[in-house]
Amino acid sequence: MFIALQRDFDDFRSWEQVRLGDGVSAEVAGENDNVTGPRVGFRRQRPTKTGYPVGSILVKTIEPSDDATQWLVFAMAKRGGGFNPAGAIGWEFFTIFMTSGGQPVVRSRGENPSDATPGAHGYPAGDGTMPTCNRCHGTNAAATDGILSPALLPTP
Fold this sequence. Notes:
This protein has one helix spanning 133-137; strands spanning 16-21, 39-43, 57-62, 72-78, 91-98, 104-110. By secondary structure, it is mainly beta. A 6-stranded antiparallel beta sheet has the order 1-2-3-4-5-6, with no helix packed on it. The longest helix is centred in the C-terminal third of the chain and has 5 residues, at 133-137. The two termini are 25 Å apart.
């Protein structure tokens, strides 16, 4: 079992980067419709053919400007050990904010982390609700191993 700590995110921008697109994301309908800018995925480990190994961490940024304090930053860490059995099995989710010095700081974490600053992070749905991470990553519609971004999928 792996438990990600604050320090595990410190150097995420030096990990392998995968461009996920620009503008409004098409990954999930309604995802941050009001936030435009490059979406970048970062992965600490590459997946195997069947999924990401325990200890893997993925970070996704939505960058509306060069000011990192304005970025939306989400992460998921593969804990394993039966964590999140009713959702994206094995995965823990994180919301992160960036300090003015460019340091990532974990804001919240868990199977469905909440946000200390409403509206600052999260995936607002068209009906005004705040869907949870598991609502998309933990459903049958989710791609292999709870991964939604095609560029980050495990490949056979």
